[in-house]
Fold:
Amino acid sequence: MERPDIYCRLGQCYGGIVHDVMRGLGMTGFVLPPELRSLIAGNVLAGPAFTIEGRPVAADPHDTLLAWTGLLSMAPSGSVWVCQPNDRTIAQMGELSAETLLGRGVKGCVIDGLIRDVRFLKRLGFNAWSRGCTPRDIVGVWRPTSVMQTIRIGDVEIAGGDAIFADEDGVIRIPAKDLVQVVDLAEAAATKENLVRKAILSGEDPQQAYLKYRKF
Structure:
């Protein structure tokens, strides 16, 4: 039987277990800033990063929109739009852009900046993690500088193609080369946690449950 898609499996995990597994492997620098919050409660985002970096710049409005729509046309199906805009005054995602990305099969976005058209994004069910919102947009004031290059958000470096996992606990970057191992271990750890939970709910002392399963 064919194994389920690795990103479908990752999407069934949760932030705490992914974090614990990666910590157990000795990894560091993989949790993005906690100020990045989910737009829609309960949503989970899992997919390979389509990385974008840009900067504020005074430019012709037409040129900025050409550059922006060019970016949208490059985003591959199944990816997560991950942007370091180097700006926290203008929105880096709105209704028309989200509609376009959803139509292309993009799973959502993680932006170290702001978004807008929040009512519409919620109606679309668009997965968005950001620092907040504003009505201001990019027209005439922002341009991309790189695509699918390594970017930094907080103290986390994210290469194009690295795995992104996000839920209400926050956002995690998983190096592409470690993804299968992390998912395998996270699934195994979740199974063990279920045994601990069952033992505690049946009245077993929590310390004894921990010593039995070595998980808590």
Remarks:
- Residues 28-174 form a domain with the Glucose Oxidase; domain 1 fold (CATH 3.50.30.40).
